[in-house]
Specification:
With 396 residues, this protein is an all-alpha fold. It folds into two domains: 189 residues, Growth Hormone, Chain: A (Up-down Bundle); 185 residues, Growth Hormone, Chain: A, CATH 1.20.1250. The chain has 20 helices and no strands. The longest helix is centred in the middle third of the chain and has 55 residues. The N and C termini lie close together (5 Å). It is a multi-pass membrane protein.
Length: 396
């Protein structure tokens, strides 16, 4: 099958709208979580509570993914995406100006974040509808590259806004970005009907479809292949700060990792044909773990940044799984399938960071990073049968 081009992808008006709103979302979330973390630290002086505030956006993905994902197929995707932006805007304004106690702020972030996986699922499931065939895979590549760039820009912008306007001002900026994104979605995307009528409660249907998806060996294998190598990567990245002992140096290494991810996604998405992308999934998944082994010999910041960049470039392995995942899931529950994929990924990353963080209390941080890399290699090899394309797809 002939691969798509970036020009063909960006020629689709609906994709340009999705792309623009996605960039605003990622950049705004970076500003929001940084501002919330600083706001909590200013009020409490507690590093632990500040870290909890920064990570508060991860927990809802597990709960929302477990109980609410069927809404992604039962409601119009445009309406869901707009609702997500407006809820984010209201949340940021309440955090900034409502004078909530710290526990109230954290509870608000968790409560409103329960629907985040539904909003993400609506966007992800709409992508193969506006970009059929291989164009969908390239579109995912573009969004992944944009995500890395938007994270860096969002964190940098967040620091600037915090300096000049303080946490409330930074949160207000995020609210403004969300309103702009909602307007872009409302006037840029045509209406699309829901994929599936709700014949039972949302929670019951979500649990039922999740069981159905996980019972399918093909879908389950692709989900695990998308989750587990990233769990190991998250564990390695979580130990960068204690390894270097300084936030500034750690920022350099983590920025290099984001740059490596963007470069890998761009190169594989742009220059590898569809069949080659699928054949590259296994070696790239192994590459995701190999460079982190070098931290066992305590490299300096320059080598650490280079190793992190090369390792994160292996995330491009996921591009070879995307078309297979779309083919494997039933169309009427595609939204929930993509939501389960992203919810499991976010939850797994939090678990990976916690596990390797615990290991770092027992052994040196560099050794813990190396262990995470070795685990990533073993996981990739254990998933080799899933990561390799079926023989009948090699020439597809």
């Amino acid at each position: 099958m002939k691969g798509a081009t970036f020009g063909e992808v960006f020629a689709v008006r609906e994709f340009k709208v999705i792309f623009g709103s996605f960039v605003l979302l990622i950049a705004g979330d970076g500003i929001k979580m940084l501002a919330l973390s600083v706001l909590v630290y200013e009020r409490t002086g507690s590093p632990g509570l500040s870290a909890a505030a920064y990570m508060a956006g991860w927990l809802p993905f597990f709960l929302g993914g477990l109980f609410l994902l069927s809404l992604a197929d039962r409601l119009s995707p445009r309406a869901l995406m707009i609702a997500g932006e407006l809820i984010r805007a209201v949340t940021c304004l309440l955090l900034a100006y409502a004078g909530l106690p710290v526990w109230g702020m954290l509870a608000l972030v968790v409560a409103t974040g329960l629907f985040s996986p539904v909003f993400f699922a609506a966007r992800a499931a709409m992508l193969p509808e506006v970009l059929p065939g291989d164009a969908f895979v390239l579109g995912r590549s573009v969004l992944n590259v944009a995500s890395a760039g938007a994270q860096i820009v969002g964190l940098a912008a967040g620091g600037t806004f915090l300096t000049f306007a303080g946490p409330p001002g930074a949160l207000a900026v995020t609210a403004g970005l969300s309103v702009v994104a909602a307007l872009v979605l409302r006037f840029g995307l045509p209406y699309r009907a829901a994929r599936k009528a709700g014949d039972q409660g949302a929670v019951r249907q979500t649990l039922q479809v999740n069981r159905r998806l996980l019972a399918d060996g093909r879908v389950r294998g692709l989900l695990l292949a998308g989750w587990l190598p990233c769990v190991c990567l998250a564990g390695a990245e979580a130990m960068v700060v204690p390894y270097l002992g300084g936030q500034g140096e750690a920022g350099v290494v983590l920025a290099a990792a984001a740059g490596g991810m963007a470069a890998g996604e761009f190169v594989v998405g742009r220059f590898a044909a569809p069949a080659l992308r699928e054949r590259l999934s296994l070696p790239l998944a192994v590459l995701l773990g190999v460079p982190w082994l070098g931290f066992a010999v305590s490299p300096g910041i320059g080598w650490a940044a280079a190793l992190a960049a090369v390792g994160a470039a292996g995330l491009a392995y996921q591009l070879g799984l995307q078309r297979r995942f779309v083919d494997a899931v039933p169309e009427d529950v595609r939204g929930q399938a993509f939501g389960l994929q992203s919810a499991g990924l976010m939850t797994g990353q939090a678990v990976g960071a916690a596990l390797i963080g615990g290991l770092g209390e027992v052994i040196a941080p560099g050794q813990a990073i190396a262990v995470s890399g070795a685990a990533g290699i073993l996981v990739a090899l254990a998933l080799a049968r899933v990561l390799r394309p079926a023989p009948d797809r090699v020439g597809a």
